[in-house]
Amino acid sequence: MSAPLLAPHRSVRRFKPDPVPQEVLLAILAEAQRAPTDATAQMYSLVRITDRDLRLAISQACGGVPPMESAPEFFLVCADLYRLRALLHLEGLPFGNFPHIGLHFATVDASLVAQRLMDAAEAAGLGVCPIGAIVNGIAAIPGLCHLPPLVMPLFGVCVGYPDEDPPLRPRLPLSLVLHENTYRIPDAEELRPAATFMNPITRSGSWLSVLARYFAAGGVMEEREAGLYATLQQQGFSTR
Amino acid sequence: MSAPLLAPHRSVRRFKPDPVPQEVLLAILAEAQRAPTDATAQMYSLVRITDRDLRLAISQACGGVPPMESAPEFFLVCADLYRLRALLHLEGLPFGNFPHIGLHFATVDASLVAQRLMDAAEAAGLGVCPIGAIVNGIAAIPGLCHLPPLVMPLFGVCVGYPDEDPPLRPRLPLSLVLHENTYRIPDAEELRPAATFMNPITRSGSWLSVLARYFAAGGVMEEREAGLYATLQQQGFSTR
After folding, report:
1. What gap in Å lies between CA A105 and CA A231, rounded to an integer?
2. What is the rounded average pLDDT of the residues A51-80?
3. Domain B22-168, what architecture?
4. At residue B172, does pLDDT exceed 60?
5. Per-residue CA distances from A62 to A1, A12, A129, A158 (Å)
6. What is the ipTM of this complex?
7. Phi then psi for A188, rounded to 5 degrees?
8. Closest Cα of chain A to B70: distance in Å?
9. Average pLDDT over residues A206-228
10. Domain A22-166+225-234: which CATH class?
11. A 41-100 → B contacts, CB under 8 A
């Protein structure tokens, strides 16, 4: 196991202005398409945002996301059951009623495609940065990108040649994320040093503070809840 | 762009009995852990099922899934907010209330990790097969694997040395899954030949029949809806 298996991943937020050549773009998209897909159904779409005004409008709807504005390429990664429904309609068949199952499989399908796109892009010497913050402006995105029903934006992916060389950032110890047969509940004595180890992943130097800002009561994730829920409803991923 | 960017993906369902060496296993897990993670939070767990009786029990709960039973390695890919809540409790902070947001980000995080694991495994000469069918037996899995609240099984991944050499299977034309700026709605004249092109992805030779069996009214996905919904509720991913 001498050679690394994949190009090292670190999210890149500053890109050179150089465009991604068409043949490189097509090569990473071909790799993305080869991701496994449940029931062969390919329940995703990628919306490549090339219009600079549209890119800016999406970024502003999300509160301003600099890498989204500066990256040569930006893809909106979407769960997509619309195309599947249209395929069944070719046969005159009614689409089933499975809101949780539909969102589940389409989110997984779309995420697998996006990760394979990122792995391929990094193998081609490009840098990538996924953008979870599109959820901040999610209610505006279907209108801006004319997304039909059953198409739900999930996150974004920036791609371009890196104009920075950030260090590899830490991850939790494997023992906390890998379990054998049954889930092993960690205690505080195991979590505290792991949290300290994670500090360099943040700019502030305190990982627990970042987690608190996002995930504690009153934090960013609670603020995002209503917008995501409303957009799921609006796009037909009804939860009942 | 002469060299391929990633090892070619095709799902492998027949594996040699040879175990995956420990150093190879650790290498692919290290790659998996490097997947990007929203808000640095790593909202996933992998449960490696090494106990043969447990593996069989999970497979049987799902209706019998041969590759899950025969693969040298099988990982249950889980959305995990339990560990995150435990980390906030270290600081005495209450976890926020964001059921849709929590499931959204944790499903994406876990899927990115799983795809990077699969890309790394294939780079190491292994074969992989994701198992969406764990949803068939999803209600039984938390008990079998002692999953605490806020841990939700999403799908499985089989890993091992291939004992078959399946062909690369087709994917939809790029023009149907890639949009530029706005979603382009395809018409029947575009969908029909694409569906014909997809036929070799199936054993039966009719892709639309497979889609119908899964996604039409009365199909497999509708059957799966109640179990997934109940397990989301049970595991604390309440949808209200």
Report:
1. 18
2. 98
3. 3-Layer(aba) Sandwich (3.40)
4. yes
5. 42, 19, 16, 15
6. 0.98
7. -60, -35
8. 16
9. 97
10. alpha beta
11. 41-42, 44-51, 54, 80, 83-88, 90-91, 93-100
